[in-house]
Amino acid sequence: MKITYREALRQAMHEALAADSRVFLMGEDVGKYGGSYAVSKGFLAEFGPERIRDAPLSELGFVGTAIGAALGGMRPIVEIMTVNFSLLALDQIVNTAAVYRHMSGGQFSVPVVVRMATGGGRQLAAQHSHSLENWYAHVPGITVLAPATVDDARGMLRAALADPDPVVIFEHAMLYPMEGELSPDWEKADLRTAKILRAGRDVTLIAYGGTVWKAQEAARQLAAEGIEAEVLDLRVLRPLDDATIMASVGRTRRAVIVDEGWRTGSLAGEIMARIMEQAFYELDAPVARVCSAEVPIPYAKHMEGAALPQAPAVVAAVRQLLAKA
Amino acid sequence: MIEFRLPSLGAEMEDGTLLEWCVKPGDRVKKGDVVAVVDTSKSAIDVEIWQEGTVDELVLKPGDKVPVGTVMIRLREAGEAGAPAATKPAAAPTPAATAPARPAVAAARTPTAAPPAPEAVIPVASAGGRQRASPSARALAHELDIDLATVAGTGPHGVITREDVEKVAAARKATTAAPGSMATTKPDGVKSSGPGSAGQARAATPVERSLSMRSAIAAAMARSKREIPHYYLATEVPMQRITRWLAARNAGKPITERVLMAAPLIKAVALALRKFPELNGYYQNGGFVAGEGIHIGVAISLRQGGLIAPAIRDVADTDLDELMRRLANLVSRARALSLRSSEMTDATITVTNLGDQGVELVQGVIYPPQVALVGFGKVTDRVRAVDDGAIAVMPAVTVSLAADHRASDGHRGALFLAEIARLLQSPESLDGAADTIVK
């Protein structure tokens, strides 16, 4: 069955709201407007204002409220319009949600799910387009997810709500209208493993969220040149699935990480470091990465396109690793 | 322009790896100056130059592994201007822009072989000239004991990839080495006498050194037994007199100034050689060439295994105290693998003393191209008939000679041993540097 990424998310939330009365959705424009990316369209009418709560423009406030509700036994889903705005809620997520289990000596956990849009490509300029997943992936105490496929969009929320600790879900803004075949495997979605989306023997393209599809496109182009790229979808940004990464790199002996974050201090850098630590002697070439240009994401379409990682850059990086540039 | 070429630092040396330069363009050098450190199969050796001039060009770069005889340095003779760059061989891996009369400041010179600054993906390798191979290729080469120097790199900028190593491994499998092939022959792709991997600007690790030294010894000794018709002689020398004499000489001296028996033994060999020059030198190109001095190679066993026989020069003209100092110094430097090239090449004969290990008789193998080896066993108390028909117990040592029958005959060899015996029984003749003692 073909569905959109947006529909997959909608189905997941609908299922959760219908199945568990402790679940409620809160965020800016999630109610009357139906969600800034229309994921919760129709929910207000169906579940009522108690469970589909429009929040004021106060990320710190409503995320904090959700954490309080979670401590009180609820299963809140918080939607933040974009990762850029989530910085206002960092204190609640990092200083409260992530540490409560530790600070309370295990007496309390915070079963909150925070969803947020991330990434560029929609001409939303420098305050709505960044990719700051690594900020969250840095923090112990939270699980960070980046569903890239309709299967994960459909399946990860259930697993996240079942987790007793805070989970942050990044939805790349370019993926909402993407259509994909929903496979029966969606129900197996977990919060621990990366997944090989395409097998190949020459190089591993490691990506997450929106860049998974850039990597897939690059792999298709490379295949035309006789280079077989493996595409690894990280899926979970914290904790990283080292075993799957190293197994793949061990097979292909080369890796290119495609990360929409800025290069400096990026998740890509972390993954490179882990490969160096764990798979150094498997490597046939230095690990490469394709990241966003270190600029605020521009508004102008052509400049935005140039600032973000694109398939041709991935192809070029692979060619260099294989001396076919 | 003088060309200084990589000297042979030992009979079996085929090539060497430049570890570092000790001079830079513009430096004035004279005979005996150490100009470079070169890794051979035996150790890292300080290479001395034997010409005088001003360094014009360093032709090699650290990490280069080159055959003996390769030009290392171009020297300007006094009054000679630097040669224009155009006259230099294109292959020389040196900066293209070589100004005539290059200024002495050479620190900024770097190998120009470095690729142009690449895209962000491939980092520029260090300028050290290390053989570039991927970690995976290195690991596999190590596992399969394949010398990376024999692998052609097809990766970016010529980096050796795992696949390249796999190809060599497959080729090696295909061509099985002939059984009983000499240690000096090199099956393609297989490590032989080269320490570590060529092109790496580093000294070999102890394990590599030990392995390569083993193969170097194998090559030299196989050559010796293959080419040299040895004859062996031995005689027993009473040591009573010299033992007492040495004890008296050492009495009252601090330990550091005492002379051990090894010194007078070596000295006796040196003095005896004055009368038997046919045992002191080399057999080369079908004939004997007498040594230009009496430089005695002293076989020194190394703790990590293997042995080395660096030379003490002009032993006959050196008094015992100085000889002892030089011997002690040589042993400690040999064990630290810090020898000079002249010490590695100058020996005109070798002396080996296995007495410390308790053996009585050494039947040595000559170190080619030398023509003789003198062995000393253990000084032990032995029962001997003495002059008046009586029997006495006295310390004695068995001195042996292994000599090249192409260069000398047993008759002369016997007289040589007798001369050593005579000298050891008149120990006073061993002391002092004056060459009038014997004559």
Map the helices and strands.
The complex is a heterodimer of chains A (325) and B (439).
Chain A: E1 2-4, H1 5-19, E2 23-27, H2 43-47, E3 52-54, H3 59-71, E4 75-80, H4 83-86, H5 90-97, H6 100-103, E5 113-118, H7 133-137, E6 143-145, H8 150-162, E7 167-172, E8 179-181, E9 195-198, E10 203-207, H9 211-224, E11 229-233, E12 236-238, H10 242-252, E13 255-262, H11 267-279, E14 288-292, H12 301-307, H13 311-321
Chain B: E1 2-5, E2 15-21, E3 28-29, E4 34-39, E5 44-48, E6 53-58, E7 65-67, E8 71-76, H1 135-144, H2 162-174, H3 206-227, E9 230-238, H4 240-250, H5 262-273, E10 281-284, E11 287-290, E12 296-298, E13 300-301, E14 307-308, E15 311-312, H6 320-335, E16 338-340, H7 341-345, E17 349-353, E18 372-376, E19 380-385, E20 391-404, H8 410-425
Parallel strand pairs in B: 5-16, 12-17, 17-18
Antiparallel strand pairs in B: 1-8, 2-4, 2-7, 3-6, 4-5, 6-8, 9-20, 10-11, 12-15, 13-14, 18-20, 19-20
Task: Summarize this entry quickly.
The complex is a heterodimer of chains A (325) and B (439). Chain A is of the alpha/beta class and 325 residues long. Chain A has helices spanning 5-19, 43-47, 59-71, 83-86, 90-97, 100-103, 133-137, 150-162, 211-224, 242-252, 267-279, 301-307, 311-321, and strands spanning 2-4, 23-27, 52-54, 75-80, 113-118, 143-145, 167-172, 179-181, 195-198, 203-207, 229-233, 236-238, 255-262, 288-292.
Taking strands numbered 1, 2, ... along the chain, how are they ordered across the largest sheet of chain A? 3-2-4-5-7-6-12
Name of the level-1 CATH class of the largest domain in chain A: Alpha Beta
Please give the domain count of chain B: 3
> Mind summarizing the main beta sheet of chain A?
7 strands, mixed
Number of domains of chain A: 2
CATH topology type of the largest domain in chain B? Chloramphenicol Acetyltransferase
Compute the average pLDDT of chain B: 78
Tell me what portion of residues of chain A adopts beta-strand conformation.
15-25%
The stretches of 5 or more residues of chain B where confidence is low (pLDDT under 50) are: 83-128, 176-201, 434-439
The CATH H-level homologous superfamily of the largest domain in chain A: Thiamin diphosphate (ThDP)-binding fold, Pyr/PP domains
Count the DSSP helices of chain B.
8
* Helix-strand string of chain B: EEEEEEEEHHHEHHEEEEEEHEHEEEEH
Shape of chain B: globular
CATH class of the largest domain in chain B: Alpha Beta
Helix content of chain A: 25-40%
- State the major sheet of chain B: 7 strands, mixed
**What separation lies between the terminal Cα atoms of chain A?**
40 Å
